[in-house]
Amino acid sequence: MDEPAVLVQDLCVVRGSRTVLPGLTVAVPRGQVVGLLGPSGGGKSTLLRAIVGVQIIESGTVTVLGEPAGSAGLRSRVGYVTQSPSVFADLTVTQNLRYFASLVGASSASIAEAITAVDLTSHADTRVGELSGGQHSRASLAAALVGSPELLVLDEPTVGLDPVLRRDLWELFHRLADAGTTLLVSSHVMDEATRCDRLLLLREGVILADDTPDGLLRRTGAADAEQAFLTLIEAEPAA
Ligand SMILES: Nc1ncnc2c1ncn2[C@@H]1O[C@H](COP(=O)(O)OP(=O)(O)OP(=O)(O)O)[C@@H](O)[C@H]1O
Ligand SMILES: [Mg+2]
């Protein structure tokens, strides 16, 4: 199990006229909750897209669970929640999950499990279009959970959630990791950094830090993750 869940080597991605990732190398270890943090526009979503195989890349390699990113064999092994809604507004939560379960060949038991995991049991038969913002994003998360993927790639899953729900979701992430799932979670919220086993700080397509929360604080002498990141960002000359 020493092989990382994700291995990105010399990844170069150009979007429009911008080189978003100029040659990025990073590994995501298995069975951990890894946070991908960094300023808006830094390339977080682009990196996650490359890992799930929906991003056109210029050069480099992305290996996921031992296979090239985007391979057909990874379809049921990788769950992905995009930054924008990915469930159908005109279907209920359960209907959505039935659809996503059919895509990955997941059992109907896993549908109920996923709904319970995100605490939407009382809204299982509500149309997604009638859910609150936070409920909507939890429905998207549930859609990625069906079939128990080995790797979960979550692009800002906690946006718009209240502190209690955020805490519950992070607890869920760690339960999943304890059971062997790898989670790669992007976030803007720096206090979420301390909830991760490992942190990647991405700024302007460059990894400024790849460390444990404790290691990061030690290395920067900062009191909290936010201060540590500011220290690193200020130490680095702008690209
Ligand atoms: N569809 C697109 N076409 C062209 N350029 C794009 C496209 N999407 C994103 N970009 C550019 O790629 C860069 C990185 O964007 P990306 O969405 O990866 O950043 P991010 O770190 O996820 O930001 P945020 O925290 O705001 O979600 C930005 O400069 C953005 O303008
Ligand atoms: Mg993004």
What can you tell me about this protein's structure?
The protein has helices at residues 44-52, 93-104, 108-117, 133-145, 163-178, 213-220, 225-235, and strands spanning 6-15, 18-28, 33-37, 59-64, 67-68, 78-81, 151-155, 182-187, 198-203, 206-211. It has a six-stranded mixed sheet, sandwiched between helices. A four-stranded antiparallel sheet has the order 2-1-4-5, covered by helices on one side. The mean pLDDT is 92. The protein is built from seven helices and ten strands. With 239 residues, it is an alpha/beta fold. The chain starts with 5 loop residues before the first strand and ends with a helix. Helix 6 packs across helix 7 (225-235). 33% of the residues lie in helices and 26% in strands. The structure holds adenosine-5'-triphosphate (ATP) and magnesium ion (MG). The site of magnesium ion has 4 residues, from helix 1.
List the helices and strands and how they pair.
Layout lengths: L5 E10 L2 E11 L4 E5 L6 H9 L6 E6 L2 E2 L9 E4 L11 H12 L3 H10 L15 H13 L5 E5 L7 H16 L3 E6 L10 E6 L2 E6 L1 H8 L4 H11 L4
Parallel strand pairs: 3-8, 3-9, 6-7, 7-8
Antiparallel strand pairs: 1-2, 1-4, 4-5, 9-10
This protein binds adenosine-5'-triphosphate (ATP) and magnesium ion (MG).
| Poorly predicted tracts of residues | none
Structural class: alpha/beta
Number of strand elements = 10
> In angstroms, what separates the terminal alpha carbons?
36 Å
SS field, number of helical segments: 7
